[in-house]
Structure formats: structure tokens, C-alpha cells
Amino acid sequence: MRPLPGHASTxxxxxxxxxxxxxxxxxxxxxxxEKDYARYQRLLPPEIKKTQLGLDFMAPNGxxxxxxxxxxxxxxQLDTATRIADAQRLVGEWHGxxxxxxxxxxxFSIADQKFYRSVAAKDTPGPFTVRFTGSQLELxxxxxxxxxxxxxxxxLNQRYLLLYGMAKSSGNVSxxxxxxxxRLVFHTSTVVERKVRGQFLTYQTVTRQLIxxxxx
Length: 216
What we know:
Helix content is 6%, strand content 46%. By secondary structure, the chain is mostly beta strands.
């Protein structure tokens, strides 16, 4: 597997560019990547860490893969400038203005000691709404989540939205924030890391990004 060069998005980004509310590690110099990524680990509360279960496996072609479908630590992070100081600001109804799947890939070549970065996005058409009460979240249509559309929630460290049923430890994590215009931003991410010793490392974050405006 070879490092991937940058390429353009397949989504309409005329209103919201692919860099919208997303922070990525610096790739030059290469050692800065790990330093930038490590900054976010101190923000993870214990309740969120308990939900982080990944799968590690070795493919027949020698590629070692680690996969986490409920990642609170994607390398393509929600910008910390969007943090929500008061959870009460979530309460109410929000209507969607963007729903897209964004795939970020950073690949590090051992041979030339360089990172290669790519990004692509795919828009999902159709209306949706998000409604918060003091303790529950409702998404319509329910297909926006794999689980039930009515979920208990708690906002932790001003950016981690934990959705849960009977137990928080089995809940799902999204990163949420408010942009300077007051829009609500959801990031729900799957992380895949692949490596072949002595050849390459590849970091992939697939993020469902929902952008909402408050319903009058």
C-alpha cells in the first residue's frame, strides 16, 4: 500500500469547506504530527475512555489494522474553539443545513520519512432535525444513528456528547461544538490505522459531520 496524495472533494463545499471546524496535525516536520495529536488526550474524561473499544487484527497480506467505530480520539479532531461552556445551549430544536461523510487520510512513508494527506467528502441529501431536552436527544430521521433515535445524553468537558441507554459505558460518543455563528456541529467518527513494519503507517478518520442551525 502506497501513501495517498491529496485530492479534491466530491461534495459541494461552497458553503462549508472541508476544513470547517476541523483541526488536523501538522505534517511538516513529521515528528510534529504525534505532538499535535497527543494534545487532545488530556481532554478525555474517564466516562469517555470507558467507551473506547477497538479491534486489532493482522491481514494475510501482512497489514496490521486497528479499527474503532466509536472514536473519541480521531486524528481529524473537532476544533476546540467550538467548545460548549453551558450544556443548556443545546436545548431546543435544530434543523440540518449540511450532512456529509468526510474521509481524512494521513499516510507516513518510512522510506522517505514524509507524510501524505488526502481528503474527500460525500454529501447526504435530505432534511433532518435534532431536538434536545434537558436529558434526551432525538434525531429525525432515525437513520442518522444506527441505534434508537431517542437517547439519553450528557455533555462532558464541553465537547464530548455521550449518548447512552441503560449504561454509559456502552454508549456512543460524538464530538459537538458551536461555531462562531452559533451553528451546532456534530462529528461522529470511525478510525482505522494500518501499518506494515518498516514500510508505512496510515491513519484514516471517517467522520459523519452534521451542521445545524437553531429552529426559530
